[in-house]
Specification:
This protein folds into 2 domains: 130 residues, Nuclear Transport Factor 2, Chain: A (Roll), CATH 3.10.450.50; 84 residues, Lipocalin. A hairpin with a 2-residue loop joins β14 and β15. The protein has 4 helices and 15 strands. By secondary structure, the chain is of the alpha+beta class. The N and C termini lie far apart (80 Å). The protein has an 8-stranded antiparallel β-barrel with strand order 8-9-10-11-12-13-14-15. The protein has a 7-stranded mixed beta sheet with strand order 1-4-5-6-7-2-3.
C-alpha cells in the first residue's frame, strides 16, 4: 500500500513539474507565402457562399472543426457544410474580406479579419459588416481550419417617418432599480428625442415607429408602453435579448 501511494505521489509530481515547463509557442508573423494563402483562401471561401459551393470549404475545414455563426449557432464540419446552399431566386450578394491579419503559434495560426457584405433581396439593398477570427493548424496537406467565430458589427438603423405629435408625452424621467437605482430621462430637442442620465450625455433616439426607437451607437431598442387609458407608463429596453423595464416616474 505504501509503495502504491509513493508511486502515485511520484506520478503526480512528475505531471506537475512537466506541466510547469511546457514551452509555449511564441507568436510570430506569418511569412509572405502563408499570408498570401490565408488572404486568397479566405476570400475564396466567402466567394463560394452565395453560389453554395461546398468543395472549397470541404478542402479547408479540419474534420474536428467547430464553427459558431453570427446567430450563436454552433456547427461541426458536417452540419456546417449542409448549410451551404445557393441563394434563393430574388437574392444575390457579395462578401469582401478586409484588413486580414494573421499570427502563427508553432503549428497553429490565428486569422482575424472583417467581412463587408452587400446583399440584394428582391431589389432592397442591405449592407452588413462582420468581424471573424479563424483558427488553423498545420496538417499533412497544409493549413486546416479547426475553429471559426463570426460576429455582426453593430450599425445604426435608419429612421422611419412616424407621427411625432405624441412625442412630448414620452418626455420625462424613467427609473431603473427603484429609488436606490438610476434615473434616465427623455429629452425633446429641435424635433428629436434623446435618452440619457443627463442632458449633456443623452443619446439620439432613432424612430422605428411612434413608440419604438433605436438608441444610436448601441445595440439597444427602446419600447415605450401606454396603459389602457393611453398614458405612457414605462419604457422597456431590449438589451441583448433581454427586457429591462423602467417605469416613468415624472415628466419634465
Amino acid at each position: 500500500m505504501a509503495t502504491r501511494i509513493l508511486s502515485l505521489f511520484v506520478l503526480v509530481s512528475f505531471i506537475a513539474v512537466s506541466g510547469a515547463h511546457v514551452p509555449l509557442a511564441r507568436a510570430t508573423e506569418v511569412d509572405s507565402r502563408d499570408m498570401a494563402w490565408f488572404k486568397q483562401r479566405t476570400q475564396a471561401l466567402y466567394d463560394a457562399v452565395a453560389p453554395g459551393e461546398r468543395a472549397i470549404w470541404r478542402r479547408t475545414l479540419s474534420r474536428e472543426c467547430t464553427i459558431t455563426d453570427e446567430d450563436g449557432q454552433v456547427y461541426d464540419r458536417t452540419a456546417f457544410l449542409r448549410t451551404l446552399n445557393p441563394l434563393p431566386k430574388g437574392f444575390s450578394g457579395t462578401i469582401r474580406i478586409r484588413h486580414l491579419t494573421a499570427l502563427v503559434f508553432g503549428s497553429a495560426a490565428s486569422v482575424h479579419y472583417w467581412l463587408d457584405e452587400r446583399e440584394s433581396i428582391f431589389g432592397q439593398q442591405l449592407h452588413t459588416r462582420y468581424v471573424e477570427t479563424d483558427t488553423y493548424r498545420r496538417e499533412r496537406d497544409g493549413w486546416k481550419m479547426v475553429a471559426a467565430q463570426v460576429t455582426v458589427v453593430p450599425a445604426n438603423l435608419k429612421a422611419v417617418a412616424v407621427n411625432e405629435r405624441a412625442w412630448p408625452e414620452l418626455v420625462g424621467a424613467y427609473e431603473l432599480g427603484g429609488t436606490r437605482g438610476w434615473v434616465y430621462h427623455v429629452f425633446l430637442r429641435q424635433g428629436s428625442l434623446y435618452w440619457g442620465r443627463d442632458g449633456k450625455s443623452a443619446t439620439l433616439l432613432i424612430p422605428l415607429s411612434p413608440l419604438v426607437f433605436f438608441l444610436r451607437n448601441s445595440v439597444h431598442t427602446m419600447v415605450f408602453v401606454r396603459d389602457r387609458r393611453g398614458n405612457v407608463t414605462e419604457t422597456i429596453e431590449l438589451h441583448k435579448y433581454n427586457e429591462i423595464v423602467m417605469p416613468q416616474v415624472g415628466v419634465h
